[in-house]
Amino acid sequence: MLIDKKKCVSCGACLHYCPVGAIKFEKGVYYINQDICVECGVCIRSNACKVGAIYQPELRWPRVLRSVFSDPLLVHPQTDVPGRGTEEVKTNDVTHRFKRGEFGIIIEVGRPGVGTYLEDVEKIAKALAVHNVEFEPKNPVTYLLDIKTGEFKDPAVKKERVLSAIIEFKIKEEDFPKIAETLKEVSKKIDTVISVGIATVCKDGEIPLATVKEAGLTPRINGKINLGLGLAWSYK
C-alpha cells in the first residue's frame, strides 16, 4: 500500500485502521512503512481516506505473498484456499484428514495486530521437519516449503511480512509430547506469537486430554466438539 503525497491532506483519518501500525506521520506527511505493511487492504476498504490518496501498486513476487496471506478476501492461486489455512479442521468428519490415534496440528504464527515475518514460519517448519511430520498438502505454507527440510524453496520469501500464517500437519497421538517440546524450544528463537490447535477424533466419547497435559500444556476449556453432522450431510 502507498499514499499519494499529492492527494493526501494529512487529516490522519487512516492512521488507526492499519492492523500492524504501518501508517506513519513524519514532518507533516503521512506515509506507509513498506517493511511493516502486510498489504492486507484494510486501509483502503475502511474508506477512511475521502480523497483517494491510498492505493495499492502492482504487487510482484515475492511481495504478493503479503497480500494473499493477509487479505481474507483473496484466494491463494496455487491452492485455491482463501485465508491463511485450509478448511477448518472441524470438517474432518467429511474430509477425513486424520483418523483415530492421529492429531491434526494447526500452528498459527503471528496474529492480526502483531504480524510475522515468514522467516519465523520457516524456523518452525524446519524444526518440525526433523520429526518427519506429514505437512498438509493443500496448505498455502506447505506449497512454499521443501517438505523434507522445512525450508522455503525460494529463500526470497523469508523477508516478507504477513498478518499471520498457518502451518498444518498430521502426527501420531503418541508423538505429540516431542512435538510440543520442539515448539517450546523454537518459540524462544522467533519474534512473534504462536497459537497451537489440536484436532482429533474422540475415542469412545473421551477427549484425549491426557496426552496434551503430559506434554506440559493446558488445554483451553472451550474446545469444540463436532457431533458428526457434516458426515450425515455429505451422504445426502
Verbal overview:
By secondary structure, this protein is α+β, with helices and mostly antiparallel strands. It folds into two domains: 1-57, Alpha-Beta Plaits (2-Layer Sandwich), CATH 3.30.70.20; 73-234, no CATH class. 23% of the residues lie in helices and 20% in strands. The protein contains eight helices and 14 strands. It has helices at residues 42-45, 64-70, 92-95, 118-129, 140-144, 176-186, 209-214, 229-234, and strands at residues 2-3, 23-26, 29-32, 54-55, 75-76, 81-82, 102-109, 116-117, 134-135, 145-146, 151-152, 161-162, 165-172, 194-199. The strands form six sheets. The chain has a four-stranded antiparallel beta sheet with strand order 9-13-7-14. A two-stranded antiparallel ribbon has the order 1-4. Strands 2-3 form a two-stranded antiparallel ribbon. A hairpin with a 4-residue loop joins strand 5 and strand 6. Helix 4 packs antiparallel against helix 6. The protein starts with a strand and ends with a helix. The model is unreliable at 232-236 (pLDDT under 50).
Q: Key terms for this structure?
A:
236 residues, alpha+beta, Alpha-Beta Plaits, 2 domains, four-stranded antiparallel sheet, two-stranded antiparallel ribbon, 8 helices, 20% strand, disordered C terminus
Annotation field: number of helices: 8
Total number of strands:
14
Strand content: 15-25%
Biggest β-sheet strands, sense, barrel: 4 strands, antiparallel
What structural category arises from helix and sheet content?
alpha+beta
Order of helices and strands: EEEHEHEEHEEHEHEEEEHEHH
Principal-axis shape equals elongated
- Mean model confidence by pLDDT: 86
Helix coverage percent of residues? 10-25%
Low-confidence stretches: 232-236
- Total individual domains: 2
Spatial separation of the terminal alpha carbons: 46 Å
Rounded to the nearest angstrom, the radius of gyration is: 20 Å
Strand order of the largest sheet: 9-13-7-14
